Amino acid sequence: EEQLQHQAYHDPLTGLPNRLLCNDRLEQALKNAARLEQSVAVLFLDLDRFKHINDSMGHPLGDQLLISVADRLNSAVRHADTVSRLGGDEFIIILQSIEGPQTPAMIAKKVQDALAQPIMLSAQEIVITTSIGISLYPEHGENAETLIKNADAAMYQAKRKGRSTYAFYTPDLTLSSSEWLDLESTLRRAISREELYLEYQPQIDLNSGEMLGAEALLRWHHPERGRISPAKFIPLAEETGLILDIGHWVLEQSCRQIREWLQQGYQPPRIAVNVSSIQISRGDILGSVLQALKKYDLPASSIELEITENCIVEHTEQSKRVLQALQDHGINLAIDDFGTGYSSLAYLKQLPINKLKIDRSLIADIHRDRNDEAIARAVIMLGELLELDIVAEGIENSEQQHFILKHGCHIAQGFLFSRPVSADQLIGMLPGGPHLKEHA
Ligand code: C2E
Ligand code: MG
Ligand code: MG
Fold first, then answer.
1. pLDDT per residue over 399-413, tens digit each?
2. Mean pLDDT across the stretch 2-18?
3. CA geometry: angle at 49 spanning 46 and 54, to 5°?
4. How far is the CA of 357 from the centre of ligand 3 (A)?
5. Tag placement on the chain: N or C end, fewer CB within 10 Å?
6. Helix, strand or coil, per DSSP, at residue 94
7. With a 6 A CB cut-off, is 274 part of the ligand 1 pocket?
8. How far is the CA of 316 from the centre of ligand 3 (A)?
């Protein structure tokens, strides 16, 4: 009877509690927490690219991998905590009687570090990463069902942020699936209905005050919801593949604008265009770029492409070929959000890159966080040694400006100089036009 009982509540492969027992334990933890006025955290884990490993290495090895993962998860948490497997590559960890969000964040980090150690499977080293979503009782839900659902939503958010990360639940993730569908179909029509437009944010040479370039930033004016942030709709566009059409539109639109400026007699700065990893892995980015340049009769030096760090780490061989082809055609390439991905420094040397853009999260806390300061300085030095241009993003105050200048970075972008502005406003900032500060 005991054995049957055990089977009903445990996963046969890993021996971990199954979904049923996970639910029971969570209900129990919530009851205790309510009585003692304590917090509970639910961590929802999903292994990154497990399906790929499982398909390519065979299911018996996939099973072994899951068993190793289960062991590591158990060693990373306290005895009182519950590690359970929901099925497939999904796990849930319940943390009882915690003090605040620091504990689950720390455990999430610890779990990710533990899993990041290579696992030996039939003489092959496998490195597995995981995305984790976190929900907290009582802030993010009163019952087990809601907390698990919200941790799951946060996990998807972590995946969108580029995998191998964790994310806390936030209420604006609660777009219901019908709202997502609605957003998807309106996004599909956004191009033809001319709801998309670009703003431009200058990049400034701090020594001369000159505008060296400007970044094109996509905007969506939704007919009912008003302005929707690209941070929200770009991930949606990537998931649905719409990013291929949208990305092409952004390139064309940027080139069209440059041509218009030239016709008006201006000397426009080089325009940096953001490119999604999907455009590199699945689209014909080279064709798209060449077509847009040709259509508006522009030299390759009129634009620059910004590619995020994760995109390069993820598809090395394929992206290397594409990036090389772009550079062979004279297109400048910048790595965006540098310092946030899991950087293998080796790729920096192998890839045809001209520029590093230091992520604004590193800049934001340089005066409060010594680690961020050290990383920002190291990135600047790294760029110098590899003879790359370095741009600091998100410069909001003069302390940050002085910091980067002092450490050898003299190109900056940020609200201190100007927010993203319309095409007319940008061109007005060129010599002879109104002063930069007016738009900050
Ligand atoms: P990003 O490429 O890193 O762009 C910089 C973001 O930082 C912009 O946010 C900009 O408005 C913001 N920013 C600039 N200066 C400051 C500052 O001083 N302080 C703060 N707090 N923020 C600053 P935005 O426009 O919301 O864009 C967010 C992200 O959306 C971009 O990050 C980029 O990854 C993506 N994105 C925007 N346009 C496109 C596009 O055309 N294609 C693709 N694939 N992605 C795009
Ligand atoms: Mg960018
Ligand atoms: Mg950036």
1. 999 999 999 999 999
2. 90
3. 105
4. 7
5. N
6. strand
7. yes
8. 20
